[in-house]
Amino acid sequence: MTLPIANLGTLRDNLSDLTKGFVGRWTIYETGTQNEICYFDSFEKFAFLQKNGIVQYPIEQGSFATYNKLNNPANIGVVLTKSGFSINQALDGLGAFSKEKFIDDLSVYTNGTTKVDIVTPSKTFLGYSIESMTYTNSVDEGADILLVTLEIKEIRELIATLDTIALAPKNANSYDTVDGGLRIPTESKLPGIL
User: Fold this and answer.
1) N or C terminus of the chain: which is more exposed, having fewer CB within 10 Å?
2) What's the mean pLDDT when you consider all of the chain?
3) With 0-12 CB in 10 A as exposed, 13-18 as middle and 19+ as buried, what is 43?
4) Which residue has better confidence, 55 or 182?
5) Cα dist from 156 to 115, 122, 153, whole Å
6) CB 137 within 8 A of CB 147
7) CA-based nearest residue to 40, from 145, 113, 124
8) Are 50 and 74 in contact (CB under 8 A)?
């Protein structure tokens, strides 16, 4: 069945509604929730950097191993935009969609320890923390548009497991007491050692 050209826009809109939250979703959630950390107009830019360290000294041929490489936490750069006015702001008397609230919401995550998850169509990045935030207004971008750049770093957490190791008791007679209870080893049966 061939669809008329006039219906393609409607079909695209309907498919977009069906896939919202999966394909094409760009947002930042508080880790472990579906709560977006702020209301923004556009997810303008996304950059992922995984940079690892490698030893700087020569190694023997064929001996390159995992201890010769340092896996550093990943870094993500995000640029969000927020305009001075949105229809949502007009409908919301509390100003939940204002630029001031937008900056305040991001400041909470920048200054705090709450982790975030970055959702993109390609991959969801779990357990990150916003390391820094800068924002600018520019005539080139539109004087009422706020550009916010976030530097976000991966947080790697390990679960510590402790095992109990039973130690064999030492033989109390293996040392002689001297001067107030200090023990010194007895003479060795091996020549040249004590």
Assistant:
1) N
2) 76
3) middle
4) 55
5) 11, 21, 10
6) yes
7) 145
8) yes
Backbone conformation region of residue 180, classed left if phi is above 0, alpha if psi is from -120 to 50, else beta: left
Span 159-165, average pLDDT: 78
What is the model's pLDDT at position 149?
A: 96
Q: Which helix (H) or strand (E) holds 148?
A: strand 142-154
Q: What is the CA radius of gyration of the chain?
A: 30
For 20-39, write each residue's pLDDT tens digit: 433 478 999 999 999 999 98
Q: What is the pLDDT of residue 2?
A: 39
Three-state SS at 130:
strand
> Amino acid identity of 66?
T
- The CATH number corresponding to 5-154 among 2.40.30.200, 1.10.290.10, 2.40.50.140, 3.30.470.20 equals 2.40.30.200
Would you list the domain boundaries of the chain? 5-154
pTM: 0.62
DSSP 8-class letter at 33? S
Which tokens belong to 33? Answer: 């929730």
Query: d(Cα 46, Cα 31) in Å, to the nearest integer?
Result: 19
- What pLDDT is recorded for position 74? 94
Estimate to the nearest angstrom the gap between the alpha carbon of 187 and the chain centroid. Answer: 60
